[in-house]
Write a structure and sequence with these properties.
single chain; 12 strands; cell membrane; membrane; Multidrug efflux transporter AcrB transmembrane fold; Mycobact_MmpL; transmembrane; alpha+beta; MMPL_dom; 65% helix
Length: 758
Amino acid sequence: MDLQQRFAALGRGIYDHHWWVIAAWILAVCLLRVFSPEWSSVARDGDLEQLPSNTAIAQGEKLNSAAFPSDVSKSQFVLVVARHDGELTHDDREFAILLGNKIGEALGENFVDVWNEKTPAIGSSLRSKSDQAVRVVVRLTNEFMATQNIELLRRTKQIVEDASNITPTGLEIGITGSAAIGGDMLSAAAESVQNIHTTTIALVAAALLLIYRSPRLVLVPMLAIGVATTVSIDLLAILAAWSQHHPNAWPEVHVFTTTKIFVIVILFGSGTDYCLFLTARFREHRSAGLSLRDSLTGAMQHVGTALVASALTTIVGLAMMGFAEFGKFSYSGPTIAICLAVTLLACLTFVPGLLATRLGSGIERGSESDPDNYWQIFWGRLADAVLSRPRTVLAVSLLLAIPFAWIGWNVNVTYDLLGELPAERTSRHGTDMLKRYFPPGEIGPLVVLAELPSGNLDSVDGQLTIAELAKPLYDLPGVEKVRSLYQPLGDPPGSVSLFSSEGLLALAAKGSPLTQAVFVSQAPGLAGRVTRLFLILDAQPFSPEAVASCSAVERKLQEIASDNQSPWHDARFALAGPTVGIRDLEQVTLADRTRIQLLVTFAVLVVIILLLRKPMVCVFLIVTVVMSYLVTIGIIDLLFTMLRGEGYVGLDWKVPLFLFVLLVAVGQDYNIYLVSRVIEEQRGGELRAGLRRAVIQTGGIITSCGIIMAGTFVSMTTSELNGMIELGFALTLGILLDTFVVRTIVVPAFLGMLSTSR
């Protein structure tokens, strides 16, 4: 029994037991709903936390935790209190201290302490040089992307708002810091999920109503995808909870807030396409006068293999992301692939079950809801035009594509995590305030950890040894200050007189026990052997300039360690802080992008060759999708350059990889459906006539599917995250190009050229 016969038998079996099939899916939904945890309780977030353990940031954080175990603060809120028209008054400064203490009291068990300008050793470093601004640092035990930070940020904003009646006139207050940025990003992601979910359902329902013009027929795909999405999300939540409690067990599944966004849009897009492929052939049989049972059997027989093939290419493509080193890539691809497999199962069982009920019986002979009836003439004329001059069509298409593809090949990306957030978000506003009064590097210093096995770094001689390390680092371009045990306030070496007020402050800071605890390890086994230096850069920590300074610091440390005359010869150095994290993120994800793009291309090519058994055609199909990707990303880069002007520095770093994987994998659905129909129509030996019939028969359904898929991706533009908005625009454009240019014109032209040559 071949595959077609097996699918025919499956169709007959489902028709005969359709209520049992429907009941099984409803039972699965109910059981998974009962046992699945809340998505927010299992979702992980943050980009730097997903880097592999062999990166510089991971090694630096490991040494930092071992050497300074009492430093329990993992994130902070930073209040920026400022006057733009003059120096702060005494009342302003007292108000800032009061406000910081109130916020600390409201944060409960997550609160560590408050640093303000009266804090020994470091207080003076919290004032701006102009005396127009002061910082208050509220330190927390939470990781910066902990979900609790959403609530803590809300409380902090509320306290600032409630204090408005006692705020000195003309005083500005901004809220920033890693906890504020993390809270804003998490709340923006949560809002994005809700916006995208609602918009996706509305757009898909509207598109299906336009196609079917019958609410009853719309219920079939909507019910099927709703069930598949619910089952998939709950299944992932259960698997993620299992992995949390069994970290070394198989399967290891991790999910993120953004995973839910991709699951929703891909399942609604691809799942609806699968439903349309099946129901389109079902309607053909119904229009031919076949019974409900025979129509369902025939649809499953002729479309089942193509559906599995289409889904398989996408599943294999997404699974290739599992070879990435970056955690968000390596876990997201396979988890979405699992969801797509669930959706395929629903379309092959639940959808036929629904069609076997009165929902399917509503599709009768000559149904006015059949869109192909209105487009036969159009698709026929388009096929004739393309097939009459296939070489000309291909040449013109290539000439039009090359300029945009060249731009796409050279597109720039940005790793600015703050740039993900809209300008009106609290932490963005606070960060802008901070940059007006303080060096941009104050947002997140670059931390140098130095381990000297033979040194007593907390002694007087140790301070001089630290000075010999701090001086060459301070001399590097891009370094504004170096805070160390030698100079806790970060003043340039030799720049402050001992008898000045600044000199007395620096001297007092050196002798403070807090200074010793901050800069030199007191941990058993590492006490006096490890010191920290905080480098304040003159660029914001996520910028290319800061990354360049980080690499320069790393090179200088290697030079110092290899210098036989240096007291730091053979010392061990490590780096921590957001800048080195961004540098590592860039290196890891660029390598991942190259690796995954090659793997996805090769894997999808192998799958479609095995399915279609036409190597030359399959290679061409892959080339068209890759070219479509380059053209798409080139056009999107031009679009955002025009929309954002000088503020645009490149696409979000996640856009190229996700765009490539989804276009190459998902885009093959239409290829397979078209070429499968061409093979079927050409079996009688009429190559050109068979190709023309295939284009006419599939034109309407491929267009409908493309519009629906584009509609699901356009819903991503309602996100609160700029990177997701860019990806939404890019995927929408890419799918539309695939639908209306590649699949409608370019592929038929190539197949027509092959038919002519034969």
